[in-house]
């Protein structure tokens, strides 16, 4: 059962059709964006206060927090491909995503009682496993509700709504702490409420757009002269995994890994900005808000730009913006202007890469393995960024902030031309979807 928000001519389920399809985003995509917005309000409100809660309330060390943060960033990689594969295998992307969202909502309950390192580790693991399970099926739903002409625009709209929640969550958390000192439990209750509403919206409103035929694998229906199914005969079943053995997809995964290893975690960039400009520590969370607001502003126009001028070019351009952000953070210039510039560049980078990578992954496979292809790219990025976060922390400790930033900036400048060449060579392997 679902509630259809809008019906477009020619498609009762709300997928844009006709001459204006390239400029119209499906109501299903918008509904999925609302689900992500509610969930991000829930998760980002917790993420914004977690450092204070872990070190100030529970009294754990910064080493313990570093472990928890790494867990928060990387554990979802363990199940991303599994979530995508399950969605493709059963043709039920909505319910696989529903399970992932529900798992994260259950973890919010655990936050109300977690007061030790072990309990927090368990709760955060469950939360991130839920994220890993839901992400690829949700992105497959976005792709299934879109047309080839407006695919990047649809992902841009979804990411814009998603990052609206990412900006609102930290603001709500710090307003609560401003009004209620030590009101961490209140933040956790609010987080749980938003998570439950998001799960409810997904279950009630979003249609389950199947990614494959309801006919059992290995069979096909042959219609009679009147067009009615007359028989079911066996055919040789093509293993869907073969569709993932696409040279273009392999090149894309290589690109995702190379760029992911050279992407510094946002927290390190913010620490560089805070240390250089010496602004008050209580304003630190607003840096997250600034990046998410910039992402929100750029997401939709950048998605439309990518549909028109090329998704691979947009991905490379996004990393040029990331390079510029690194340069702005490295330069010995202080003041609010350079800090704001860095946040705007980071937001532009996310707008040009986050959804675009998923769009590129869909171009090298068919709908039968779409979620698995998306999950493969996301897994490579998650693992690469986990490695980069740990590696940059060690590098910072060994040679200092300035030299670490300089080395990474030079490395990504050298890799970008190679990445552009690899993506150009992958174009010939695009699948007909």
Q: What features would you describe in this structure?
A:
The chain has 14 helices and two strands. By secondary structure, the chain is an all-alpha fold. It folds into two domains: 21-205, MFS general substrate transporter like domains (Growth Hormone, Chain: A), CATH 1.20.1250.20; 240-429, Growth Hormone, Chain: A, CATH 1.20.1250.
Write down how many β-strands occur, each being a DSSP E stretch of 2 or more residues.
2
Measured by DSSP, the beta-strand proportion falls in: under 5%
CATH architecture descriptor name of the largest domain: Up-down Bundle
Radius of gyration over all CA atoms, rounded? 22 Å
Please outline what is shown here.
With 433 residues, the protein is mainly alpha-helical. The protein has 14 helices and 2 strands; from the N terminus they run αααααααββααααααα.
């Amino acid at each position: 059962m679902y509630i259809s928000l809008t019906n477009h001519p020619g498609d009762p389920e709300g997928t844009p059709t006709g001459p204006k399809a390239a400029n119209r985003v499906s109501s299903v995509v918008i509904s999925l964006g609302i689900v992500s917005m509610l969930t991000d309000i829930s998760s980002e409100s917790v993420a914004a206060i977690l450092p204070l809660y872990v070190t100030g309330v529970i009294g754990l060390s910064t080493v313990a927090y570093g472990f928890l943060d790494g867990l928060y960033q990387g554990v979802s990689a363990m199940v991303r491909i599994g979530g995508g594969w399950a969605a493709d295998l059963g043709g039920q992307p909505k319910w696989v995503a529903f399970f992932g969202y529900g798992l994260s909502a259950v973890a919010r309950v655990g936050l109300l009682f977690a007061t030790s390192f072990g309990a927090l580790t368990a709760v955060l693991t469950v939360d991130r496993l839920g994220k890993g399970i839901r992400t690829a099926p949700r992105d497959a739903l976005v792709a299934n509700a879109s047309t080839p002409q407006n695919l990047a625009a649809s992902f841009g709209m979804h990411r814009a709504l998603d990052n609206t929640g990412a900006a609102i969550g930290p603001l709500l958390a710090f307003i609560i702490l401003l009004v209620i000192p030590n009101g961490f439990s209140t933040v956790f209750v609010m987080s749980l409420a938003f998570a439950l509403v998001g799960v409810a919206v997904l279950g009630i409103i979003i249609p389950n757009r199947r990614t494959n035929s309801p006919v059992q694998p290995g069979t096909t229906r042959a219609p009679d002269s009147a067009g009615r199914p007359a028989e079911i005969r066996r055919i040789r079943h093509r293993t869907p995994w073969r569709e993932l053995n696409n040279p273009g997809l392999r090149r894309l995964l290589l690109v995702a890994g190379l760029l992911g290893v050279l992407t510094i975690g946002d927290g390190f960039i913010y620490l560089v900005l805070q240390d250089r400009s010496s602004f008050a520590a209580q304003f630190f969370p607003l840096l997250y808000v600034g990046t998410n607001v910039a992402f929100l502003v750029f997401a939709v126009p950048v998605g439309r730009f990518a549909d028109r001028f090329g998704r691979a070019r947009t991905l490379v351009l996004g990393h040029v913006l990331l390079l510029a952000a690194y340069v702005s953070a490295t330069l010995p210039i202080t003041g609010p202007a350079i800090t704001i510039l860095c946040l705007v560049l980071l937001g532009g980078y996310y707008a040009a890469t986050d959804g675009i990578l998923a769009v590129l992954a869909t171009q090298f496979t068919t709908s039968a393995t779409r979620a698995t292809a998306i999950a493969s790219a996301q897994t490579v990025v998650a693992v690469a960024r986990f490695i980069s976060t740990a590696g940059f922390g060690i590098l910072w400790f060994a040679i200092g902030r300035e030299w670490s930033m300089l080395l990474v900036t030079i490395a990504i400048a050298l890799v970008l031309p190679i990445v552009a060449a690899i993506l150009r060579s992958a174009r010939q392997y695009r699948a007909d979807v």
